[in-house]
Design a protein that fits this description.
This protein is α/β, with parallel strands linked by helices. It has a single domain, classed as P-loop containing nucleotide triphosphate hydrolases (Rossmann fold, 3-Layer(aba) Sandwich). Helices cover 34% and strands 21% of the residues. The model is unreliable at 82-92 (pLDDT under 50).
Length: 203
């Protein structure tokens, strides 16, 4: 997929503020220090599309971007960041829950996890909640350039093995790196195929 345009649409603090669900949509979320904004910028080729910061947890709204005038990219708040207050974390959770409840045009949620770490409780809980609620999703293992190929393969295998405790079939997954643009073509290709299927079904 060639990204020809990426345009900020709006930021929303509640479900009633989201854009109309009239195009295919893909959402990105993960723990607050996983590199979500940088990954979005790498995928789109626009270095300042999503705001990055040295302080994790800056995304507090749902930010919608229109890509190629054809599909939405939704940047969701991160979760699990200890320095946010309990009330803020609950607020982020409610916002994500309301998002999932009303976005009937959501074709996939991309859950970002840090490839360097073992499965985190908050990641597993979020992934399982998506499955229980029938939300389509894929996992993106970020910062994969920080590991040797052998260690990356082992960490991914360990993660998928942990998921086997709850899942008969593992979800789609990708290894990504902002540094060497690893995973960009694979993720965009996955989105492109979903868009084609969406259109073929008469949507």
């Amino acid at each position: 997929m060639i990204i020809r345009s990426a345009e900020f649409v709006k930021s929303s603090a509640a479900a009633g503020q989201f854009p109309p669900p009239d195009m295919p949509e893909y959402a990105f979320t993960g723990r607050s220090n996983v590199g979500k904004s940088s990954l979005i910028n790498m995928l789109t080729g626009y270095k300042r599309l999503a705001k990055t910061s040295s302080t994790p947890g800056k995304t507090k709204l749902v930010n919608h971007f229109l890509i190629n005038d054809h599909w939405y990219l939704a940047d969701l708040p991160g979760y699990g960041y200890a320095r946010t207050s309990r009330s803020e974390r609950k607020g982020f959770g409610r916002l994500i829950e309301s998002y999932l409840r009303v976005r009937e045009n959501l074709l996939s949620m991309f859950v970002l996890v840090d490839s360097r770490h073992e499965p985190q409780v908050s990641d597993l809980a979020f992934i399982n909640s998506l499955g229980y609620n029938g939300v389509p999703f894929a996992i993106v293992f970020t910062k994969s350039d920080k590991l040797s190929p052998a260690l990356l393969q082992r960490n991914v295998a360990d993660y998928l093995k942990r998921l086997e405790q709850e899942w008969e079939t593992p979800p789609p997954w990708f290894c990504a790196s902002v540094t060497d643009r690893r995973g960009r073509e694979e993720i965009l290709g996955y989105i492109e195929k979903a868009n084609i299927k969406f259109t073929a079904n008469g949507n």
